[in-house]
Amino acid sequence: MSAELQASRRDGTLILTLSNPGARNALHPDMYAAAIETLSTAERDDTVRAVVLTGADHFFCAGGNLNRLLENRARPKSEQADSIDNLHRWVEALRDCPKPVIAAVDGAAAGAGFSLALACDLIVAGSSAKFVMAYVKVGLTPDGGGSWFLSQALPRQLATEMIMEGKPVLAPRLHQLGIVNRVVADGTALDAALAWADELAQLSPNALERIKSLLGEAPHNTLAQHFEAEKHSFVESLHHRDAQEGISAFLDKRPPQYR
Fold it and tell me: Cβ neighbours of residue 145 under 8 Å, at least 6 residues apart?
């Protein structure tokens, strides 16, 4: 069986499963294009309320396939550069997706697999799941935005240690550092992520989209700029049908029903 990105639905949740049997779900360029197309379709589908990214057989992703990378040394540098560009488009698609994206990590998230998990909005991980930026162990440097995400999330010294040493870090430690949101029993990360997605699906899609946008803009805005962004978002949200339903439901003491 070849490497592929499998897409399935459970109610309002789109499930994207990294699958590469025998290679611990190592990444392949075919996955990149499939992911970008699937996320683009989901963005336009109002019935999709959340996205869960996971790996087959209770293992998230081993990162890049080293045999394929070794073979690429005999090819023009531009081929590898193009492949990384497509990986980065996938990461951008995860970040730009207006729906909440949850990573469900069991086993390990290594290399670009770790980067993909970091690109998600939320991370649920099994208690013994390992996260590792192992590039340095094979003479490489990060891709997929891994060094950017970690430098944003951690003090410089901790990010430097994690990337320069390339040693595995367990989920409980990343939970303490605020990178992993929830630690669950091994083998249950997907179920926990789907349950969380179900909870998010009950909330206003418009509000969730705007919150994700505000959080994405925040690091690049001055406080004054962000005041303006929040003002615009609040006013637009107030005049959206979701606010009519949400406020009415609260006053009527009933659960809201968002369309």
Answer: 88, 91, 115, 118, 119
Q: Where are the alpha helices (DSSP H) in the chain?
A: 29-43, 66-72, 77-96, 112-119, 146-153, 156-165, 171-176, 189-201, 205-217, 223-238, 241-252
Q: Kindly report the CATH class assigned to 205-252.
A: mainly alpha
Numbered ranges of CATH 1.10.12.10 in the chain: 205-252
Query: Distance (Å, rounded) from C-alpha 96 to C-alpha 121?
Result: 10
What tokens were used for 173?
A: 């430690």
Start-to-end Cα distance in the chain? 39
Query: Structure pTM?
Result: 0.95
Which residue bears the tokens 């951008």?
A: 92
> Beta partners for 184?
126
Instruction: Enter the tokens of residue 198.
Output: 């179900």
Render pLDDT for 216-257 as a digit per residue (tens, 0 to 9): 999 999 999 999 999 999 999 999 999 999 999 999 999 999
The encoded tokens of residue 200 equal 């998010």
Bridging pattern class, strands 50-55 and 182-184 = unpaired
- In three-state secondary structure terms, 15 is strand
Place of tokens 């208690």: 127
